[in-house]
Structure formats: C-alpha cells, structure tokens
Amino acid sequence: MPGRPSLAGRCLRGSRRTGGMGGGGSALRVCADHRGGINWLSLSPDGRRLLTGSEDGTARLWSTADGQCCALLQGHESYVTFCHLEDEAAFTCSADCTIRKWDVRTGQCLQVFRGHTSIVNRILVADNQLFSGSYDRTARAWSVDKGQVSQEFRGHRNCVLTLAYSAPWDLPGAPCAEEAGGLLVTGSTDGTARVWQVAGGGCWQTLRGHTGAVLCLVLDTPSHTAFTGSTDATIRAWDILSGEQLRVFREHQGPVICLELVNRHVYSGSADRTVKCWLADTGERVRTFAAHGHSVSALKYHAGTLFTGSGDARARAFDAESGALQRVFRGHAFVINCIQVNIYLWKPLGNGQEVLRIKGKGRAGSSRNPSAGRQGDARPPGLSLRQAQPRQLPGAPAPLSVPQVCRRGAPQGRDPPQRSCSPAPDVLCSHTATALRCVLSPQHSVLPEVSVY
C-alpha cells in the first residue's frame, strides 16, 4: 500500500513518548494479514485465541501467544461486520445477510444461518441461543446447534444496532422472566429500545425518550436496568420490566458512542472527545476523562484501569479512580473500533501489560459521492439507506435515519475495499454497511491490522 509504514516502523512508532502525559505503549506485535480494514475482534474465554472480522470478507484466528494466524475462515460473500469467539466455535455475521458458525480447530464452516434480508450488524451468543440484529429492522433468535430461527422480533422501524440478553435466572422474582424464556433488549436507529420476550417473540416494553438513534446499550441484570446511549447526546436508564425511564444523563455535548458498566459505575464515550463516569444508581457525574484528540469510539475496563480508543488513532489507559492518564498507545494511523484486554497475559501497566487492540475504517476514494454503491450490498443497486427507510405510518413520528450515510466500494481482487464518505470532518456516522460507529475525517485509510501492546 503506497505510503504505508513498514511493520518495524509501526512498532517503533508505538514506543514514542507522549510529552509527559502518561508513558508511551510499545507495540509487541502487529497482526496484519487481512487485506481490508478490521471491523471487530473477540477473545476466546481462555485467552489463547483472537478472532478478527474484516472488510476483506474473511475472519482470522490468531494465537495470542505468538501472534501467528491459526486459521483463515472463508465463505462469506461480503464483508464481515461482527464476530464472537467461544472455546470450540467461532461466529461471524456479514453484509451478505448470513451468520456462520466455524470450528476453531479446523477452520471449517459448520453452519450457515439464513433468514435475514439485509446486513446483519450484531450477534450475541448466550444460553445456547444465538441472537442477531439487522438492517432489515428485525432481531432474531436461533438454535446454535441446528442453525434454525426459533423466534423473530418485529417492531422496530429502522436498523437494529445493538443487543443485550437477560436469562430467566438473572431476573429473580420477575413475573415475566420464566414464562418469557428470558428477555432480549434491542436498540435501533428509530430512537427506541425494545424489550422482547424470547419464548413468544412479543414486545414486552418499548423504551421511548431518545430523540436520536440508539447507538449503544448495556444491561444491569441484578437491578433489571438498561442503559442506552444515543446521538441525542444523552444516556438514559430504564427499568426493563416496567418500561419506566429512571434517569437521564445529560452532560455530554455530542453523540454517545459506547458504554461500559462496571461496579455500579457507567462509563460513556462520546463524540465530544471525552469519557464520563456516572453513578449508575443516581446519575451523578463523578469524573471526566479528557486528553482525547477526537471522538471516543471504544471503551474497556479492567482491574481499575479504563482503556479508551479514539478517532485520533490512539488508545489510552486511565486510572479509573483518579482519572489520571497513565499511558498512550500509539501505532495505528486511524480510528480504533474495538479494544480487548487479555486477562491471562495481564501484568501491571509498568511491567508490560498486554492489550489487544484493533483499528479500521476506510479510506475515502477518488470519488466522495455518498451514493456510490457496492457489490454484495443487501440493498438493490443504487438504493441508498435513506431510500430504504421504512415508510412513515399515519399518525406516527417519522422514522429516524442514521446521522450520516457512507457507502463503501466493492472489493476488487486483492485490494482492500474503499469507502466513499462525506467530506465533512468530525461527523459521527453509522456506516450503512456495518453500523459500526466511527468518526470520519476528510481522508483516512484502511490499515488492516491488530496491534498487541
């Protein structure tokens, strides 16, 4: 790739200091075999394997011990949007409208889950069930073993972006929990979240209050509370049994992109370039983590340390209690989508702790026409997301569209796919293809790599 630094150069760049605001993190390994940007990564429960899903239409399994690629998972007909790794099986979903289950030892595809009619954004595996959300405005539950749809959840008027599940035994005393077979919570660009009874497929509650797309969602099962983050710059707390809105967290000045719930504290990353820490029970803001040069796109908490990923292409480690910046991890060139911490390789920050980090999100091509289509897209050629919005029902509020539409070019041979995006800087957008939130600068390139620090 023209202008792309060498592997050694990227690792050396990762060791630079940060001008007194925390030490610089050195890249231990860079996994760069993908031919397109990486959309997501997942660690196995035992910490031995890492799964990455890419724009090149493949997923790869890596050994966390030496960074070597163990298996190439091929079969999807379009880019991989999300992935999940178990000890013995891997799951991927794609813009080809399917979900696939893979054997992690052989790399063979074990099952193809078919039924969605548009891009599958997210999957969640729990209680021997697989849940999925799609641009077709539905969520679905599947049998992990048979690959068949066991339930379909219809009611959202726009894309389903985020999922959370609560098993029946996680809701003791709830009258609906046992007979409902657990509760599924979904967030959508229609501005609502919905609570579904898994067994019957019925909508238990509709959580209304946001005035923008719901981008992120976390669930506190002991208190049966859901926290949602939105493009309206608020976080809202909901009782998922009664549907009551409990609290509104209002101090962010931009869309809320990601949430993390730990020890009765809610951490929120925003396009306003900050992370805020809130008391989950009262909504009081107790701390603000600044120092980011762009929107905060990823959060991960571990052992008193809060890790953040940003549109400025850096990951940072903060002391979660004091808010002090401890370290800045350099090496990537563009927005970071996801951060994972391998607890089995964990050491204190001063002694070489290992953090697994991924980055991606595309390069603006020679054309900046946001209506440029891509092959393999779930929509008919030439049909934009705005054209594909569900029609407004009589007397109902107009459905909300994604804040900014960005279309990506089809893969050409061995070249990584390219995107055509709006030239406006500092715009938070859900890509029409992946629904992964990223911040777009006027021009930015794909670097299909994972860095290990």
TrEMBL record:
Intervals holding WD repeats: 31-72, 73-112, 113-152, 181-198, 207-248, 249-288
SUPFAM superfamilies: WD40 repeat-like
PROSITE patterns in the record: WD_REPEATS_1 (PS00678), WD_REPEATS_2 (PS50082), WD_REPEATS_REGION (PS50294)
InterPro entries per record: WD40/YVTN_repeat-like_dom_sf, WD40_PAC1, WD40_repeat_CS, WD40_repeat_dom_sf, WD40_rpt, WDR86-like
Repeat recorded as keyword: yes
Pfam families referenced in this protein's UniProt entry, alphabetically: WD40
Keywords: Repeat, WD repeat
Protein name in UniProt: WD repeat-containing protein 86 isoform X2
The species this protein was found in: Acinonyx jubatus (Cheetah)
